[in-house]
Amino acid sequence: MPIDDDRGQRPRPTAGVTATLSRRRALSWMLLPAAGLVVPAAWASAARIASARVWPAQEYTRLILEGPAPIAHQLLLLKDPHRIVLDLDGVELGPELAQLPSRVQANDPYIAGIRFGRKAPDVLRVVIDLRAEVTPQLFALKPVAEFGHRVVLDLYPQNPVDPLMALLEETRPPAVETRAPEREATRAADAKPAPRPGAPRRITIALDPGHGGEDPGAVGRRGTYEKNVVLAIARKLKTMIDAEPGMRAMLTRDDDYYVPLAQRVQKARRVRADLFVSIHADAFKVPTARGSSVFALSENGATSAAANWLAQKENAADLIGGVNLDVRDPVLARTLLDLSQAAQINDSLKVGRHVLEGIRQVNPLHKPFVEQAGFAVLKAPDIPSILVETAFISNPDEELKLRSDRHQKSFAESIHGGIRRYFAQNPALARVG
Fold first, then answer.
1. Alpha-carbon span 296 to 373, nearest angstrom
2. CA of 322: how far to CAs of 141, 188, 366, in Å?
3. How far, in Å, CA of 250 to CA of 391, rounded?
4. Which of 101, 190, 413, 424 has its CA 20 to 30 A from that of 365?
5. Which of 219, 152, 145 has its CA nearest to residue 395?
6. Which helix (H) or strand (E) holds 210?
7. CB of 346 closer than 8 Å to CB of 303
8. Alpha carbon distance 180, 420 (integer Å)
9. SS3 assignment, position 301
10. pTM over 0.85
């Protein structure tokens, strides 16, 4: 029995899809079991999927197929029920791809399950059953680092969560059940005029755990992933900032998924952040390199060859993490090219010095001053922005620190202390609450 042919279904245009399936009738093809496969002779020389991965998150779920050669692909978006059909030309259903359904997590927000079928003798059909209607983005990536050719399918919700509304909802005090007379008083209070323009608001800190998802960042000799330790430090730091009167924090990513560098900046601007702090763990080719560093943006080149090398390495994260270049925000891109950021850089250096002074108390410094380089993630023209390299994950001793819950807390406390000292001396501008 056919599992999902395209009879009576009109293909819907989707972002990133470059080809639409032809309106041919389904041939006699059957659901293929995930085990005990009998591969048709026509597929003997078919393309191979070397790896199939799923990265689930509330923000979006990413499905990746990787192979040693380009993967010809076409997509259909179908309804009743909601599902996505991905046809792969000349691809065999090998062991890696056959295990993909078992990699779908029960709590995946968007994917309910994955099935396989045969559209034609040389066309493998992948059916992705959805929990709700989504907005898909499909694009291909060329080989980079240790990755081969990748086909990337991102599944976004129809109504994505706005970072500002999420932050407001997160910091909203819990509702309290009141008796009838108290409800009347509450209604009277609600009828009072709104705060006048210019009333102060809570200071908002955007915390940016580096890397994520496909991009592990640096990897220590003990197998420690940078993306994991910096997320742990960022979460601890967020808890400390949220407990601070008059402050609140948001995370540019709160799980193991990749956020493009430009989107990290965009999220910070959307919540009108007063400060942007990107958190990383450094690495170098020799294990003796050690110490913590703080960086700000540079208008006139890097302050050292090492800083320039590090900026180039961090800016290449989009190539590894995987970014759909067809949907870049042109307005944001123009903003990021604007180099008239002298005031932002000046404030970034100030906060950087305070954070550097704090982190000195918990780990030796790699350099005793705030360094500068052209980090893409620091280019918000209206937000003081710093990048903190907490320690060298390539150094065995510092890798142990980064793995330690106690030391992660110490790093978070030191950054928190530097942020407090900065705003004590440089109050944020008053804005409408």
1. 7
2. 7, 52, 31
3. 23
4. 424
5. 219
6. none
7. no
8. 42
9. coil
10. no
Pairing of strands 83-89, 123-130: antiparallel
Q: Which residues of 214-233 are buried (b: 16+ CB within 10 A; e: fewer)?
A: bbbbbebeeebbbbbbbbbb
Spatial neighbors of 239 by CB under 8 A, at least 6 apart, are none
State the alpha helices, DSSP H only, in 149-284. Answer: 163-171, 180-190, 226-242, 261-270
User: Which tokens in the block code for residue 329?
Assistant: 């925000």
**The pair of three-digit structure tokens given for residue 251, joined into one six-digit string:** 């995370």
CA distances from 430 to 201, 204, 427 (A): 7, 12, 9
Under DSSP, the state recorded for 26 is P
Query: Taking a C-beta distance cutoff of 8 angstroms, is the pair 33, 97 a contact?
Result: no
DSSP for 94-147, please give it. -HHHHTGGGGS-TT-SSEEEEEEEEEETTEEEEEEEESS-EEEEEEEE--BTTB
Instruction: Give the C-alpha separation, 259 to 377, whole Å.
Output: 11
Q: What is the DSSP string of 267-289?
A: HHHHTT-SEEEEEEEE--SSTT-
* Alpha-carbon gap, residue 37 to 124, rounded angstroms: 13
Asked whether 419 and 348 are in contact (CB, 8 A), the reply is no
| 282: exposed, middle or buried (Cβ count in 10 Å: 0-12, 13-18, 19+) | buried
Q: Which of 54, 71, 72 is nearest to 63 (CA)?
A: 54
SS3 325: helix
Instruction: Give me the tens of pLDDT residue by residue for the chain, a chain 433 residues long.
Output: 445 554 334 333 343 333 333 333 333 233 333 333 333 444 445 678 999 999 999 999 999 999 999 999 999 999 999 999 999 999 999 999 999 999 999 999 999 999 999 999 999 999 999 999 999 999 999 999 999 999 999 999 998 888 888 888 877 665 554 444 444 444 444 445 444 455 457 899 999 999 999 999 999 999 999 999 999 999 999 999 999 999 999 999 999 999 999 999 999 999 999 999 999 999 998 999 999 999 999 978 898 999 999 999 999 999 999 998 776 555 455 555 454 578 899 999 999 999 999 999 999 999 999 999 999 999 998 899 999 999 999 999 999 999 999 999 999 999 999 999 999 998 876 554 4
Spatial distance between the Cα atoms of 140 and 152, rounded to a whole number of angstroms: 6
